Amino acid sequence: MSRIFLTGDTHIPIDIKKLNSKNFPEGNELTKDDYVVVLGDFGLIWNPIQSDKEEVYWTKWLNDKPWTTLFVDGNHEAFSRIYKLPTEPKFGGNVGKVSDSIYHLKRGEIYNINNKSFFVMGGATSIDKLSRIEHISWWKEEVPSHSEMDYGLGKLETYDNTINYILTHTGPTHCIESVLDMHKFGVFDTTPDKINDPTSKYFDHIDSYVEFDKWYFGHMHENWSSDDGKYNCLYEDIIELSDDE
Would residue 245 count as lying in a domain? Predict the structure, then answer.
């Protein structure tokens, strides 16, 4: 059985150090048949035109790790290149291939690993997009399109709307509110933008009728879990999915 670890945003190179040998010693015991999943804002592919020296360096750094890296797209990715990655079948769905050790988990797909099902939907709204430059540091594709959303709903229907895990970048509205509430609301001028994200509204719809075991997301730069452990926001934490979940 493969081992599967989940963590939040890496914003390569800013937060990737959490996956080094010192901070993630468990990684030394893994093989390429084991997986580390980044829940959006991966940041490896950031140059909108072509691979640059930094991307080459961090691609090699990840390739040299014992495990295979999987990533959900966030809102801070160069979508002009993410969407042009070669597509290949893997885990019962389609993935975007960066290298033999790095794969993009596509929006709306359902993957099967260790006899567990994983519904994936990346994307979120950038609250600072007005200070960014379109096609350089911001892409309108950060928010899932209607066709991507519909594709995801169709995939869920083929599974009778019953899934083991949901992996996303942002989360349902009630989760975002709970994470923000740790800061007593009002601390962030951008709070309404975080809550009114159309991606979260889409997840509210999924949350209302899809049966699932656990939901994991990033985006908020916080580590948080609901009281029942069903909803989980990850940032610095790296957690392993247990076989009995």
Answer: no
Q: Is the dihedral of CA 126, 82, 155, 118 positive or negative?
A: negative
Q: What is the CATH number of the domain that holds 24?
A: 3.60.21.10
Per-residue pLDDT of 103-140, as tens digits, reads 999 999 999 999 999 999 999 999 888 889 888 888 99
CA atoms within 13 A on the CB side of 132: 17
- Reported as a single tens digit per residue, the pLDDT across 199-223 is 999 999 999 999 999 999 999 999 9
CA 62 – CA 16 distance, rounded (Å) = 10
Query: Distance (Å, rounded) from C-alpha 150 to C-alpha 13?
Result: 33
Q: Which two tokens stand for residue 172?
A: 């349902």
Sheet of strand 93-99: strand arrangement: 87-90, 93-99, 102-105, 68-72, 35-39, 4-7, 238-240
Q: Contact, 181 vs 165, CB < 8 A?
A: no
151: region left, alpha or beta (phi > 0 left; psi from -120 to 50 alpha): alpha
Count of domains observed in the chain: 1
